[in-house]
Each structure stands twice: as C-alpha cells, then as structure tokens.
Amino acid sequence: MGVKRRPDRGNHWYYEFELGKTRRRGVCRTPDGDYARTRAEANDAEAAVRAVVRAEQPRLGLASHRVTLLEALALHIKHNSADSTASHLASLDRISEEMLGFFGVGRAIADITADDVAAYRNFLVSQKRRVWIGGQRKMDRDNPRLWKQTDKPRSKSEVNHCLDVLRVALRLAERTSNGRLPPVPEVEPVSDPKRVPSPMPVAELEAGLAVAAPWVVEAALLARYFGCRLSEALTLTRGHLDHERHCFRLSGADTKSGRDEFLFGGETGWDLALELADQARRRGQSRLVTWPGQEWARRVSDGNKPADGDPVWRPLNSIAKAWKATARRAGIERPHRFHDLRAAFITDIARRSSSTVTKGLARHSSMDTTERYISAAMDDLAEAAKLADRGRPKISARRG
Question: What is the residue-wise DSSP string for 30-77?
Fold first, then answer.
C-alpha cells in the first residue's frame, strides 16, 4: 500500500491505504485538481485524503461513568492504530494485557485510586526482565520456552513506558466521558536519573579491536562511524545502502521514531559500508555483519586450525558475550559499553556542529537527550583552558 504509478491507467499515480478497517483507493490529484506528476505530489495527495477520511470517522468517546479500564485501553489502542508501527501496537497489547491482569478486566476507571496506581507502580518495579530467545520466529508471548527469565529488574524506562500507557488511558477516559467521570489520579513516573554519556576513548577502541573477532570489529566500526545502535549495526543490510546520498537509509518501520532515518558516516564510513556490502554479497547474505557459527568461531578464538571447508555465514542476534570477552582479552579493567561508541560519534559531531545538526545526526527525538552529549563535549573546553593556562604568565593579585 502507499502510492504508485499505474501504467495500465495512463501512468498516473494512485494511492491505496487502509483506515478504519476499510481500504481506500483512488487517483492522486493536486489541490488544483490536476493529476499528481511526482511522488512528492502523490504523497501529499494521499495525506490529504487520509485527513478527510479521519475527519469523517465517527468521534470516539466513552460516555458512561462506569467505563472500565479495558474500554479505555481499547480506545487508546484504536486511536494509535492508524499511525503507529506494528511493533508499537504489539507493545501496547502486551502492556495492556499485563495491566488488566493486575487491575482486573472489569475494573471501572472511577474505582481506581491513587493507592491503586502506587501499588501498580510497585508491582512493575518488582518484576524481572524477560528476554526473547525465539530467534526469527514470530513472537509468542505465551510460550515459556521462547523466553528467558532473568534476575535483572525491569529498567526504569520500561516501567515508565507502562505507566505512560496507564496515564494516557485514564486521561482519555476522563476527557471523553463528558464530565461523567470524577478526576482520575495522577500517574507519576519512577525516577530515572540520566546517565551521563561516556564516549569511548580511541585508545580503548583500538586495544579492543586488536583482539576482537571480525564480526565484533565490523559492528563496532559501524557504530563508531555511523552512530548506530547495537541492534541497528547487527541488522543493517545491503538494501539499506543509499548510493545516491552515500549513507544508510532506514525505513520508518524499522526505527524508534517511526520515520525514515539517514545514517551518515563520512567518506571513511561509506568506504566501510561498501566493503561490508561486497563481503556480504560474496557470502550470499543480505546482512552486513555475519558470523560463521559458534563451533567454527570457538576454534578460531582458541587459536586452533579452523575446520575444513568454508564456514556457513549467518546473521547475528547479539554480540554481548563477545564484547565482554574482547575487553577481557584486551586487559581493559573498566570497559565502556558498546553504546559508548555511539556516544563517541555524537560527541565528535557536537565538537564541530550546532546542537540542531547534532540532534539530527544523532536521530534523537528530544533536544534534552542531545544536550547530554553536548555537555560531554564540554570536557574538551575544560582541557583547552588548562592548556592555555600552562603558557599564561603568573600574575599576582596582591597589591603593595
């Protein structure tokens, strides 16, 4: 779905999308009534039709003062269904299911008190993280064999995300009930102290890469040159290469923001991207970072001769263990996180560009997040002041 040319219909642009469980199709026209001539004009035409269709939808609301939490959550998800990604909607479903298990499916909004909200917050904080180990299979929340229960508590950001869903559902119910609901309780987030970014020093990176496995080196350099997150570095494919702009282009379906994003790495980064793309092509893989499997990799890391024949290259789901092992082999006592490679990338940009440019290249949704990285770059100013002071004449402030 989307917009596309129809050679069978005069080569005109046509739109097709689904909204409110109804599929819409039609020819793309400009505000003047002419046929759209470019993809940009076609996208504008589709957006205008979407706006009209949304305006024609019956207004959603909750009129009863006995509206339940289940109804409020369903309304919240319905409001998000048109513009949210599939992964975001799946997250809302998962959070709603757990929330209803805590409060009860039939719990009325009017009966939820501040004490209930506090108890729910404490419940979330006490829960342990579950990690998906089902690989490429479709996520099945009810199959315990595909999940691993860890001993680590949920992160504050995970807890706050759940609390955000509750907050929005309560306020949505209050706002659309036409005054029939009493004021809903406030849902305060748990404290989430911001971790100051710690850009990885070049010396530590070089020491680690000297003893790292090739696939660890490749993922680390992608993060350092392009500012990739770890999940992005491991899932970049040849299809993400934008040869016109010399960058990676991520579609909105694959990004946290839900929008298309561009990853620029300069000439050095682009040369790396082309090298990895050529390597992936020779290996018959689409992913840029691949590995030869556990047995083959273990023999190489132990210094033994690899098994006969060429390895079977395959995608990687994680390099967490390999990253820690690399730091141990390199003798790094207090190693930085993999994410600190991204911090080093953003700090480099902040040293040379405005905060707006830094925010754009970092792909942050909030300037507050970018400001944390810019503050890290202020260490350079302090060091520069120290260097200047060494050559400055010592002048006494005493008089007489």
Answer: -TTSPBP-SHHHHHHHHHHHHHHHHHHSPPP----TT-BHHHHHHHHH
Does residue 315 surpass a pLDDT of 60? yes
For the residues 64-85, what does the mean pLDDT come to?
Answer: 76
Q: Which of 260-269, 299-308, 330-339, 382-391 has the lowest mean pLDDT?
A: 299-308
Q: Which run of H or E residues covers position 149?
A: strand 147-153
* Range 302-329 average pLDDT: 80
**Long-range CB contact pairs, 34-39, < 8 A, 24+:** 35/10, 36/3, 36/12, 39/3, 39/13
What's the average model confidence in pLDDT over 108-118? 90
In the 8-state DSSP scheme, what is residue 388? H
349: CB partners within 8 A, 6+ apart: 227, 357, 358, 361, 362
- Decide the pairing of beta strands 247-250 and 261-263: antiparallel
Which residues neighbour 236 within 8 Å (Cβ) at sequence distance 6 or greater? 222, 228, 248, 287, 288, 289
Distance in angstroms (rounded) separating the CA atoms of residues 339 and 58:
45
- Partnered with residue 5 across adjacent β-strands are 13
CB 267 within 8 A of CB 183: no
**AA identity, residue 81:** S
User: In this structure, which long-range contacts are made by residues 264-269, counting pairs with CB atoms below 8 Å and at least 24 apart in sequence?
Assistant: 264/226, 264/361, 265/222, 265/225, 265/226, 265/227, 266/225, 268/225, 269/222, 269/225, 269/226
Distance CA 179, CA 176 (A): 8
Alpha carbon distance 294, 296 (integer Å): 6
Q: What are phi and psi of 260, to 5 degrees?
A: -65, 135
pTM: 0.55
CB 193 within 8 A of CB 372: no
Residues 126/158, Cβ–Cβ less than 8 Å: no
Q: Which domains does the chain have, with CATH numbers?
A: 2-56 (no CATH), 69-176 (no CATH), 202-385 (1.10.443.10)
